[in-house]
Amino acid sequence: MSIANRKWCLLGGLLMIIPYIFWYYLGSDAYVLIHDNLDSEFVYIKHILESESFFNFDFTSKIENVMNGVPRIFLRSGLNFTVLLFAIFSPVVAYITNHMIVHLVGYLGMFLFLNRVVKIENPLILLVSSISFGMLSYYHIQYGISISGQPLLLYAFYYILKKKERLIHWAIILIFPFYSFIVGTLPFFIPVLLLLGLIEYRRTKTLGRNYILAIATLTVLNLLVEYQLVYAVLIESKITSHRIEADNTAFLGAPDWDYFIATLKTYFKQTQYHSGTLKPWPFMVMFGIVLLAYRFKIKQNILFVAGLIIAINLWVSANLWLINFFTEFNFLKTFNSERFYFMLPFLWLLLGGLLLNELFSKHKILGSIGFIGALFVFIGIVENNKELLTNFSILKGESIQEPTFKEFYAENLFSRIKKDLEPYQPESEFFLSIGMHPNIAQYNGLSTLDSYQNNYDLAYKHLFRKLVSEELSKNTGNAKYFDYWGSRCYYFSYELGRRYLVDKHADVTIKNMGLDMELFKKMKGKYLISAVPIENASELGFRYENTNESEESFWR
C-alpha cells in the first residue's frame, strides 16, 4: 500500500470511529437494536456468564431459570471473543466496543482487499466502498465478524493461494473462528474458497498445499470453537431441537414460479437485513453503463463477481423448493441453507468498486456518474442504519419511538418488583410475560416459562403448546407462527396479537385471557408479569400484586 493510500486508510478509520465517541457518551441512554438483539442475544450471553458455564464441557448442563432448563449446548461457545468482551465490560460498553471492532474490521478488510487484491489505487473508490461496507448494519452480537470479516478473510486466502503469504495472513485465518459464528460462515464461505482454488488450478495446473491446509485449518478451528453446537447437532440424539418443525411452506404456501420471481426481485432490490441492508440498483445501472462503454467486453473479475451474485440470488429464491424436495432430510430444516445471502453485501460493494474503477479508467465523466451512484448506495446504507440515526436523534434531544437500552431492560423497575416478591425462589417460581419480551424478565434475574431461543428442546415446545392452546385456537396466524417456527415461545394473546412492545402509555386491556392453569402450576408457573391489565386474571386463579412504573422505564 502506498504512503498516500495509508493516509487515506487512516482518515477513513478516524471517520468510522467518530460516531462511537458519542455512543459511549450516551451509554445506557442510547438506543440499541431490539430485534434479534436485546430481545435475545444479549440475554443468552448473560445466562452463559451468570450460570458459570463460560467454558463448559458438561454436555448435560442446563440454564435452569429458562423454560424449566434450556440445554447449555444450544447456547454460544465461551471461546468466542464477543462473549469474552461481555465478561470484561458492562453490557452497554461491551456492546458498543464489539460493534466498533466488528465495523472497523469490515472497513479495514474492504480497504485492504480492494487495494491489495483488486489493485484499486483511486482513493475515492477505496474510501467510499470501504466506509460503505464498514457502515452496514450487520447483526454483530451473534455473528461477530462472520459478515464484516469476509473481505479480510478472503484477502488472507488470496495471498496463500498466490503463494505470497506472510505470518499476518495465517494469523487472520487462526483468529477468525474465535470471532465469528460457524452457521454464518463455514458452510457458505468454504464453497467460494474451493471455487477459487479450482479456478487457480485450471489456470496454473497447480494448487499449493498451504491453501488446502488453510481451508482445513479454518474448518477444524470453527468446529472446535463451537464444540457444543457441533455436539448437539451431530452427536447428541436425546435432545431434538424445536427447529425440526420449521416449515416456511406453512407461511408462504407451496413454492411456485410466482414465489420464485417475487423472491428474486426482493433480493435484487435489497440485501437481507441480518447481513446489512444495501440497495444495489445503482450498481446494476453502472454495470449497464460499463457494458455499453466497453461494447460488452468486460473483464473476467467483474463477470465472476456478478455471476456469484446472480447464483446466490437464484439459490435463495429456489431454496424453498430444495427443502420441500428433500423433506426427509431434517437437517435442511434446522439449518438455514439460504444464508449464502450473507455474502451479498460484500459482493455488491466489491462489484461496485470494480465497476467504478473501470468507469474512471475509461472516462472521468463516466467515473463521476458512477461515483454519484455509489454515493446513493452509501446514503441508502446510512438510512437503514437504525442505531446510528436513532442515537443521532437522541443527541439532538428528539423523542424516539422505541425504548433506549435503559428503558427497555428497566433494571430499577425490576428491582422494585423483586422486592415485592421477597423471598423470591427462582428455582421454583416461574413467570409468564404478557405484552413484553420474556427475556427482559430473564435479564433481571426472574425465571420464565417463555423465552426467545434459537434452539430449545422440541418436547418443551409441545408442552408449552398445550399451556397456551386455548389462546392459539383463537387466531390461526398466531398458531401457525408458533407451530411452524416457534423460536418465540411466547404467550400470544388473541387480543394483543404479536405485540411485544406495549409501552406504559398504551390504552390496551386484555378482557379474556385463556391459559391451562393446571398445567401452568405443574410447569412451576406462579406469576404473570404483564404490560397491560388483564380483566379475567382473578377468574383464572391469579391475585393482583402490584403495578410498577417509572420515568426511566418503557413499561408499566
Explain this structure.
The chain has 556 residues and is mainly α. Helix content is 58%, strand content 4%. It has a three-stranded parallel β-sheet with strand order 4-3-7. A two-stranded antiparallel ribbon has the order 1-2. Strands 5-6 form a two-stranded antiparallel sheet. The longest helix is centred in the first third of the chain and has 27 residues, at 91-117.
Share of helix, binned: 55-70%
User: Could you list the spans in which at least 5 consecutive residues all have pLDDT below 50?
Assistant: none
In terms of DSSP E residues, the strand content is under 5%
Radius of gyration: 25 Å
Largest sheet: 3 strands, parallel
> What is the tally of helical segments?
27
What is the spatial order of strands in the main beta sheet?
A: 4-3-7
Average pLDDT, all residues: 90
Judging from the principal axes of the Cα atoms, what is the shape? globular
Tell how many strands the DSSP assignment holds.
7
TL;DR of this structure?
Helices cover 58% and strands 4% of the residues.
Please write out the topology.
Elements: H1 3-26, H2 34-38, H3 41-50, E1 62-63, E2 70-71, H4 81-88, H5 91-117, H6 123-135, H7 150-161, H8 167-175, H9 182-204, H10 209-225, H11 227-235, H12 248-252, H13 257-269, H14 281-293, H15 300-325, H16 331-334, H17 344-362, H18 364-383, H19 386-395, H20 405-409, H21 411-421, E3 430-434, H22 438-443, E4 447-448, E5 451-452, H23 458-467, H24 469-472, H25 476-483, E6 488-489, H26 517-522, E7 525-530, H27 537-540
Parallel strand pairs: 3-4, 3-7
Antiparallel strand pairs: 1-2, 5-6
Helix pairs in contact: 1-5, 1-6, 4-5, 5-6, 5-7, 6-17, 6-18, 7-8, 7-9, 9-10, 13-15, 14-17, 14-18, 15-17, 17-18
